[in-house]
Structures are given as structure tokens and as C-alpha cells.
């Protein structure tokens, strides 16, 4: 069997690039921007408000347990956004734990 050259990686599309950028920011502990739901999606704005409030409070368990039922466009968008919020909150909690473990310099 002849050897073939490895395939070149395809560059990310706009949507994938934006998602990977948002994930990298969330892994650094930065909360994603609050969702602005307009028009037909306005009915789900209360979910976005509640999720953002939980993330700002740092309540990871409640954030992950927040019920988002349904399998339609705006609900799927909310689920992805909730997952990003959870990643950011986990990163913030880990950073706080790392700061708490660092030894304090002794004063003489």
C-alpha cells in the first residue's frame, strides 16, 4: 500500500472559531456575555437571566442542575451557553482554591 501524505487540517469556520474562542475564555474563568434573546426567543429570556445570576453567584451545582427542557433552537443555544457558564465557574473556583493553598509569606 503506498504511503499517502497526511491531510492538511481544515481551517475553522466562523462558527467553530467563535465557539473555540469562547471556550478558551471560559476556561480562563471569564463568564461569557449575557445572552440577548429577542423576538420569538424572548420567552426564554427568563432562563438566561436565571442562569447568569447563578453563574455570577458561583453556584455551580445549581447551574448544572438548572432544568432546560426541549429540543429546539433557542433551548439548544441556552444549553450550550449554560455549559460555557459552568466551565467558567469551575475555572473561577479552581483559581480561588489555588490562591487559598499558596503559602503566605512570613513577616518578620
Describe the structure.
57% of the residues lie in helices and 0% in strands. The protein has helices at 14-27, 45-57, 60-65, 73-101.
Mean pLDDT: 87
The helix content is 55-70%
Total of DSSP H or I helical runs spanning 4+ residues:
4
What is the radius of gyration computed over CA atoms, rounded to a whole number of angstroms? 19 Å
Q: What overall geometry do the principal axes of the alpha carbons give?
A: flat
Main sheet overview: none
Q: N-to-C SSE series?
A: HHHH
- Which residue ranges are poorly predicted, with pLDDT under 50 across at least 5 consecutive positions? none
DSSP strand count:
0
- The first-to-last residue Cα distance is 73 Å
- The amount of beta strand, in percent, is under 5%
Structural category is mainly alpha
Characteristics:
108 residues; mainly alpha; 0% strand
Summarize the structure in short.
The protein is built from 4 helices and no strands. With 108 residues, it is an all-alpha fold.
Amino acid at each position: 500500500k503506498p504511503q499517502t501524505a497526511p491531510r492538511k487540517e481544515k481551517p475553522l469556520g466562523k462558527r467553530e472559531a467563535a465557539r473555540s474562542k469562547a471556550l478558551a475564555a471560559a476556561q480562563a474563568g471569564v463568564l461569557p456575555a449575557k445572552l440577548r434573546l429577542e423576538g420569538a426567543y424572548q420567552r426564554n429570556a427568563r432562563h438566561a437571566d436565571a442562569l447568569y445570576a447563578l453563574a455570577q453567584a458561583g453556584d455551580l451545582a445549581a447551574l448544572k442542575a438548572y432544568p432546560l427542557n426541549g429540543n429546539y433552537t433557542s433551548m439548544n443555544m441556552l444549553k450550550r451557553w449554560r455549559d460555557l457558564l459552568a466551565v467558567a465557574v469551575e475555572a473561577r473556583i479552581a483559581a480561588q482554591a489555588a490562591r487559598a493553598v499558596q503559602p503566605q509569606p512570613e513577616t518578620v
